[in-house]
Amino acid sequence: MIQFILGFFAVCVILALVMSLIAKPGKNQVKTWKAYTTKDGKTGIVYTGLVDKDKLELDKNLETAYKTALQGTDKAKALAAGRAYYRNLRGINYSVNDEAVIGNDIAAMRSE
Questions:
Q1: 38: pLDDT strictly greater than 70
Q2: Exposure pattern of 59-85 as b/e (b: 16+ CB <10 Å)?
């Protein structure tokens, strides 16, 4: 029974991989890939799916706004930009850790 389940799982994984590779993006979509490196130094690339071009542009704009705010001295502006960036990036998975990262970034900002 376990061999059947493992075999079925393997077939599903292979089918999902094949489908992801032959998926055709819509008019306003792009295929996205992510590079990774493991702790032991191995690298690879993973297909992450089809993403809306407008979402990618919004991600870049929010990241730019956050980085620009961190270069200035207005900590309230940097906090708002950081929260907007991480909420957009994480969605429902926005966490206390994101607030800590933003807090550390703001603490490292230059003072007026």
A1: yes
A2: eeebeebbeebbeeeebeebbebbebb
- Distance between CA atoms of residues 92 and 37, nearest Å: 26
pTM: predicted TM-score of the whole model, two decimal places: 0.59
Lookup: tokens for 96: 């206390």
- Tell me which H or E stretch contains 94: none
Do residues 72 and 112 make contact, with C-beta atoms less than 8 angstroms apart? no
Average pLDDT (8-34) is 68
Of 63, 55, 45, the closest CA to residue 25 belongs to 55
Q: How far apart are CA 35 and CA 30, in angstroms?
A: 16
Query: From CA 9, how far away is CA 24, in angstroms rounded?
Result: 25
